Fold this protein.
Amino acid sequence: MSVETYFDSISRDLKAGVHPGDILEQIEDLEPVQKVELLQRLPDEDATLLLQEMEDFEQAEIVRQLDKDKVKVILTDMASDDVADLIGKLSPEEAQEILYLIGEEELADFGSLLKYPEESAGGIMTTEFISLPADIPVEEAISRLREIAPDAETIYYVYVVDHEGQLIGVISLRDLIASSDGTILKEVMKQNVISVNALTDQEEVARVVSKYDLLAIPVVDDQNKLLGIITVDDVIDVMEQEATEDIYRLAGASEVVGMELTKAPVSRIVRLRLPWLLISMVGGFISGSVIGGYESTLEAIVVLAVFIPVIMDMGGNVGTQSSTIFVRGLATGEIDLLEAWPYFFKEIRIGASLGLISGVLISIAAYLWQGNPYLGAVVGVSILATITVAALIGTLVPLVCGKLNIDPAITAGPFVTTIKDVTGLMIYFFIATTFIEYLR
């Protein structure tokens, strides 16, 4: 299908009210240069709608190629937080050029966003919100709301400020409409406003919004001055981004920054994933050296080798379960890093319980298979100790890394696996060597 055909189809869909997100699915197979040509031909308003729905890295790629006059119009129409995110994906030289294009008047709408860290509340907030003074009556508030609503990101909440711009209350649109004329805003507003500081990490913002089921949350500075708001659609994007990062790290991989994973070149993916495989390789050599150190034990009791995969796999499963649950608990706020030790000891008890049950079962199986109760006891005790230690390692390593301000998700893959494999083998062969006389 040609760009001309896409242009006609998209124009019809936009006029018919089709959501821009659905339209993007129609053009996802187009080459970047074709998307640029398409946006160049679309009316400014339609081009803005489509560009605003794209991922940041794709926006940056298209903005680099679009006509500068078109870029100026589109960015002027876009929400301030989206423009700030887009500029953050450009090089300093490109960002400077865009800022020059936009001009001082429009720059004032979002320029303050650029001074905050990209993944902070200030970095993802929008300055297009509705705030009103506390001493005006309800009917005047509704009248003002009608005037400024078209330029606001959301109108579900009206924030009430004092003469210095400090946040002192909030009133929902429903409560505002239901209030009687003549009622002063400060009489119907809620004074206990849930807000976040501009420097709060975006992951913490997502937790607060999820906890209180908010559609938007105000962002304030250290003096409680209202700076902007973060809407629920931005929070959903944050949750998706953070979850994606954690999943990649849990798997011992890295996210490909600046593009979709499925579209990243093979060489770049290999470069990002190879270090983690090398860590696993080193762990494999260490595990092999442990086995080699007990070569005489294996030569004397060959059947011990049969249970090595069982020991490693069961310990690996429990270690992965423990680390995944612990890291996920930290990410969602269910586990507080400052008070994580009680959960740590609970996880040890869980590991010991799982180890005891598994140890008894495999002990019986080994005895019935080989007819040697001592072999069953050695394997069973090894399983019990290995699973308990695996649960300890799976929780302790991320916990310690978290205390050291290292992302716990990074440690939950190759590091935990490597440590668990080595300790599991050492436990197994130590017990087997201690009781080798009974195994002959």
Observations:
- The domain at 3-115 is CATH 1.25.60.10 (MgtE N-terminal fold).
- The chain is about 65% helix and 5% strand.
